[in-house]
Write a structure and sequence with these properties.
The chain is an alpha+beta fold and about 180 residues long. Helix content is about 30%, strand content about 15%. It has four helices and seven strands; from the N terminus they run αββαββββαβα. It has a four-stranded antiparallel β-sheet, with helices on one face. A three-stranded antiparallel β-sheet has the order 6-5-7, covered by helices on one side. The radius of gyration is 22 Å and the shape is globular. The N and C termini lie far apart (about 95 Å).
Length: about 180
């Protein structure tokens, strides 16, 4: 009788712990893939130009089922990719250049990436991206983003707080005095 009771307790414990083990395995499978290494032949998805030809922060999107990342010449293009209905939605990870680790935000370290949905962004700064457009500057550290905004203007936002109109229809670049 005692053996039956021990067996019953062991089976009950196993039945209760099995879902927990499955949850841990599920979480491990959901971890995003690491960022790809930017190579000299990386081409921008929208512009068709070599990423090395553009200054400023870049982006990469890892689509589930695709071996190669989709390279984007700017963080603005990276946001746009996630907003446009014709682009793939099975995204494994989104990475942007981490400007918090750069001495010069217009020439950031192309080996320093931050998961885009965890970054802080400065929108509306006086600095422009590599294509001369308004550029969201990404930071892994909120304090660094706030310092950048204090020095260069702009608003600090999270990925989820950036709206389509801020990306797809950004404010026009201001013209220098004397331009028409």
């Amino acid at each position: 009788m005692r053996t039956l009771s021990i067996l019953r307790t062991a089976l009950l414990a196993a039945a209760l712990l099995l879902p927990l083990a499955a949850c841990k395995q599920e979480k491990a499978e959901v971890a995003p893939p690491p960022p790809a290494t930017l190579t000299a032949d990386a081409i921008g998805h929208y512009c068709g130009m070599n990423l090395a030809d553009h200054s400023g922060p870049k982006g990469q999107i890892l689509v589930k089922g695709q071996e190669r990342p989709i390279w984007l010449s700017s963080v603005r293009d990276t946001f746009a990719f996630t907003m446009l209905p014709e682009e793939p939605k099975e995204i494994g990870a989104i990475y942007v250049t981490d400007v918090a680790k750069a001495k010069d935000p217009t020439a950031p370290d192309m080996t320093a990436w931050v998961e885009a949905r965890k970054a802080w962004y400065v929108l509306g700064s006086k600095l422009r991206g590599g294509m001369g457009e308004a550029e969201p500057y990404p930071f892994s550290d909120k304090a660094a983003a706030e310092r950048f905004a204090a020095a260069n203007g702009g608003t600090v936002l999270r990925f989820a707080d950036v709206h389509e109109d801020q990306i797809l229809t950004p404010p026009a670049a201001t013209m220098a005095e004397g331009e028409h």
